[in-house]
Amino acid sequence: MKKLLFALLLLLSGLAATLYFFPATQLASLRLIEQYRAGLAHEQLSVHNLNIHYYQGGPASGETLVLLHGFAADKDNWLRFSRHLTQDYRVIALDLPGFGDSDLPPGSYDVGTQAERLADILDALGIQQAHVLGNSMGGHIAALFAGRYPDRVRSLALFANAGIDSPHKSELYRLLTSGATNPLVIRLPQDFDNLLQFVFVEPPYLPASLKRYLGKRAMARAEHYDRVFEQLVERSIPLEPELAKIQAPTLLLWGRQDRVLDVSSIEVMQPLLRKPSVVIMDNVGHAPMLERPEESALLYRRFLQSLK
Questions:
Q1: What pLDDT score does 16 carry?
Q2: For the AB hydrolase-1 domain, which residue ranges apply (predicted)?
Q3: Where in the chain are the domains?
């Protein structure tokens, strides 16, 4: 028994050391655990010679939810959120072209181009109609898609979406217009912690070794993200004229303490939408589905159920 216990301790020590010294393995392990708990599988398909990665789960006969991440993010943002939806809905969380594991296509990453790529991706998946949800940049893309293809969107949910000239300027806007560097782009190792503090009120726990790894990975993409952000700004399509084209019931969900995009955007959007619902979450930042995954998923589920 002592030998068995000693062997088990050695095995656990070796596993802990492996995860500490090889954070890529740690991240892959955590992803698999979260995928399993959410009932999601990692899949991919080719769309116009672009390799697109996505998570998919839930009953094939269920109504389809399409989830779009924000700038410098990826499909992992929806893992814990999706856990509370896959029992009843078919969930698809995309890596948009240029992000996550999907290919980096030549050309533009502006929201208009990405909205058309989204239409092509849904065609390739055989999805004619879906509930579409987007956060930040993904919300901007989702709203444009809903305006351009109203017959394809059963409902629209916008979690702190971009594309609105808000009455009260966000902290990010004030920083960028003052000439400060973009806090959403990681250039130095310490920038990752600063990013977490900027995006969240209470950042999700991450082991130090994993923070370092994620920071280094983001640093390697800094030039790409700079180019994408420049295009998002220079080729932006304001949403104000587009909102009246949206036919679908729309949920506007925001964190009251959002420093990236100000919650006052709701004041502009609500009167321009045909069927708006509004939820403001207290003590939440820019990514409700990460900071409060269960609560934000239940709020979204309540919105979906109200449509029946």
A1: 43
A2: 64-293
A3: 40-306
